[in-house]
Amino acid sequence: MSFVPLGPRLAADGTVVAAPMTRRVMNLADLLHGTARRLPDRPALVWRETTWTWRDMAGRVNAAAAALAARGIGKGDRVVCQSRNGNAMFEAMFAVWTVGAVWVPTNFRNTPQEVAYIAKASRVKAMICESIFADHAAAVTEANPDLQLTVSIGIAGFAALDWEALVAEGRSASASVASAAMDYDDPCWFFFTSGTTGRPKAAVLTHGQMGFVVTNHLADLVPGTSDQDASLVVAPLSHGAGIHQLTQVARGARTVLLSTERLDCEEAFRLIAEHRVTNMFTVPTILTMLASHEAADRHDHSSLRYVIYAGSPMYRADQQMALQKLGKCIVQYFGLGEVTGNITVFPTREHDVDDTVQGRIGTCGYPRTAMDVRIFDDKGAELAPFETGEICVAGPAVFAGYFDNPEANAKSFRDGFFRTGDLGHKDKDGYVYITGRASDMYISGGSNVYPREIEEVILTHPAVAEVAVLGVPDRRWGEAGVAVLVARPGATVAEGDILKHLDGKLSRYKMPRQVFVWDELPKSGYGKVPKKLIREML
Questions:
Q1: How does DSSP classify residue 463?
Q2: Cα(253)–Cα(228) distance, rounded to whole angstroms?
Q3: Closest by alpha carbon to 488, among 511, 531, 459, 527?
């Protein structure tokens, strides 16, 4: 994808074409710098034994930005970051934006080869890499001969200098860097897709788009957030959790990090009680782990107002368990990296343990503020309520397109709508229900089968903790369903138990032909269950 400058242009005959109006927007870094001016002494970030105020954090970010600028990093340059959660990673994001560069974070669980591919595809100019990832740094350096600067987090031999030295360099120079001027379409973040169906693609997020996303998150997900709030981070800041933390920075709420990259439920609940945490971003697997952990019964978590879950649908049984343990504080949203989470919301007030009260079982909510969500068939015709088709979305939260990938852009947009690849329908009131991924659907005996529906029924069996259903080749039916499940701790379950449980609850053509019980399902770095991996293991 290319970016067209907003200045004067020349027509084919050489005459000047009037330039469109410049759409100047706030540099996202000013979310931090503005909060630091308003609330300099309020806590901004808590990690392990250290608390940084907004003044502390802004000072470090300004110093790092000055040093990056002095070393030639500027507007439009891409900076890849391979790191676990920590203060340096959080600061680096704002320093990169301050100089006008583009943030390219990776999931710290990615392999060296995967990070090297991301860096090469982004044509990065600099790398920020935690010291423990020496192999990643080597792979990126080898694949990117134009790489000009490597900064380590923690002292490492592969880097020109470490993050603390970079900050000190900027401070010693007494340099000051004003936030780079930004227009609406200037890129700020290359948000890489998970790549479970092929090579990861860089979704280009822009300063103007992300300004809307932050506003929308504050309006639809965490209304009323202020500097009196605190947010606990239990997922990598490289993706959804990082987007969520921007809303906290915008309102001056403190961010609290777990001490390590591993989810420690005991520590999480201790921090919730200690800091009176009011909100956090999770995925369904993490929320289920937290709610089912015995630490939930020993720590005060009454401060929680918004426990957000996204990334994949949550089974109804797990929803009910989370509501019983944590109270009426869970919020669901449906969104992809390409729309930065802004497709639907199912707020706290509409969640309930009682099915008769919640009413819309299985919904992911209604369209987010200012977002147009529609269901289209394969030919692009809009479908009526309760008719299943592809969920498509338009609005100011939709990304600018995939970087340097015109083929993917052509496939992903139709008539101005982004095609999510998710199948579903709306009810008569506009609530959206996800049936599954278009790639998950299989055809058995000429009938479309949507695995999500089968998974929901299997999950009602008391011995089942997790399940994935997928279609496999079948000589008689074309394709047939296979269920792979994990039993709850202490429980046992067999194929016959599941088939008996499903009898009478599903049409015969939807019944899985085989059931496998595994110790665990494979997970991606973001807690999702990639069916591609299950298929390969089968």
A1: T
A2: 6
A3: 459
E strand or H helix at 457, and its extent? helix 451-458
Q: Residue 128: what residue type?
A: I
Neighbours of 437 (CB within 10 A): 17
Q: Measured between alpha carbons, how far is 333 from 366 in angstroms, rounded to an integer?
A: 9
CB 105 within 8 Å of CB 237? yes
Angle between helices 495-502 and 451-458 (to 10 degrees): 110
What's the rounded Cα separation, in Å, for the pair 257 and 264? 11
Q: What are the tokens at 352?
A: 């309930």
409, two tokens:
């852009």
Both tokens of residue 398? 């939709």
- β partners of residue 9: 17
Closest alpha carbon to 99 in 70, 120, 58? 70
Place of tokens 């959660």: 85
- Is the CB of residue 496 less than 8 Å from the CB of residue 451? no
AA identity, residue 292: S
Residues 6+ apart with CB under 8 A from 37: none
pLDDT digits (tens, 9 = 90+) for 447-497: 677 788 788 889 989 999 999 999 888 877 778 899 999 999 999 999 999
Please tell me the distance from the alpha carbon of residue 297 to that of residue 314, in angstroms, as a whole number.
22
Among residues 241, 182, 240, 176, the alpha carbon closest in space to that of 211 is found at 182
pLDDT value for 284: 86
Helix intervals (H) in 305-365: 316-326, 355-358
Could you tell me the CA-to-CA distances from 376 to 5, 318, 385, 392, 529 in Å, in that order?
33, 30, 11, 7, 26
CA 494/CA 277 separation, integer angstroms: 41
Any residues with CB less than 8 A from the CB of 381 and at least 6 apart, and which? none
Q: The dihedral of CA 405, 407, 411, 415: what is its sign?
A: positive
Mean pLDDT of the chain: 91
Closest CA to 63 of 16, 115, 99: 99
